[in-house]
Specification:
alpha+beta, 5-stranded mixed beta sheet, 3-stranded antiparallel beta sheet, 8 helices, 36% helix, disordered C terminus
């Protein structure tokens, strides 16, 4: 909250002190829906009149509930896309164009991609012909979750969609890197040690760089040296983090593609005079 109000600190089962973190959206919603503040006592599915005085008038409470109901309806319409594409609205290509999620179903499986719009007139040039126009949602989302887990000390599975969107305000896909802009306040809320650039830089993944965000002093920019490139209709990540198994899989798929091309050429040549001449045995052709 703006006044610095937080839940009380507590100790974990192992004895570690857990400082009071800023209220999450779920905790704030629970507070705003608490009928105890209007003089009532909720119990199970019923509500009773309490003996205590209300500290919030009924008109204000009802107005807040109406606003929360409206926001819930909006979230329910957006939630499916946000869960499948949590960077929706915050991902941009190297030219600053917003990349939007697109979903397609192939062989019963749903595939999601962040897709950039067509280049505007005047932006299309030969040096931008190889610009990446789409990125698989899962590939990019998993990359960011791993980086944020290393930075905050949380487990990757604890980086939920809500946490991800609270931390990340902007992501840019460049030719040789992926750059993410993080809010310092949200970082400190998850790890109190991330209070300045020096401590953040000390926790970066090897090879990552911390860049200044001049336009917003309360944010930091992290550059991840990884290239997402198209190959054979698929998007691959190429950088220090790419494992040997991923490279082997890419090599196998490339070999399979070349082999399929060779078989296609063989089928086209089969039945031609040139093919029959090659397949004719020497002893049957009259040549000795």
């Amino acid at each position: 909250m703006e006044d610095g109000i937080r839940p009380k600190a507590r100790r974990s089962p192992r004895g570690a002190l857990m400082p009071g973190l800023p209220f999450s959206s779920g905790a704030l919603r629970h507070l705003l829906q608490n009928k105890t503040y209007i003089g009532l006592i909720p119990h199970k599915d019923k509500t009773y009149d309490g003996r205590h005085e209300a500290i919030v008038d009924r008109a204000t409470f009802d107005a807040v509930q109406a606003l929360l109901s409206h926001r819930s309806a909006v979230w329910k319409r957006r939630a499916p896309n946000l869960e499948r594409a949590p960077l929706q609205g915050r991902l941009f290509d190297a030219l600053g164009q917003r990349m939007m999620p697109v979903f397609t179903r192939q062989k019963g499986r749903l595939h999601g991609y962040y897709v950039a719009p067509k280049l505007m007139p005047g932006l299309n040039s030969p040096d931008r012909a190889d610009a990446l126009r789409r990125v698989p949602c899962r590939l990019l989302d998993d990359l960011l979750r791993r980086r944020l887990a290393d930075l905050t000390g949380l487990a990757p599975e604890d980086i939920s969609t809500v946490v991800l969107r609270d931390l990340v305000t902007r992501v840019e896909i460049h030719g040789d890197s992926v750059q993410i802009v993080l809010g310092l306040r949200a970082l400190r809320g998850l790890n109190v040690n991330l209070g300045n650039a020096r401590t953040i830089e000390a926790r970066l993944h090897p090879g990552d760089r911390l860049l200044a965000e001049a336009s917003r002093l309360d944010h930091v920019r992290i550059s991840i040296p990884i290239r997402m490139k198209m190959r054979g209709g698929r998007t691959w990540s190429d950088g220090p983090e790419v494992t040997s198994s991923q490279k082997d899989k890419a090599a196998r798929l490339a070999a399979i593609k070349r082999l399929c091309g060779a078989h296609a050429v063989n089928r086209r040549l089969k039945g031609t005079p040139y093919r029959r001449a090659i397949g004719t045995p020497l002893w049957g052709s009259g040549l000795q």
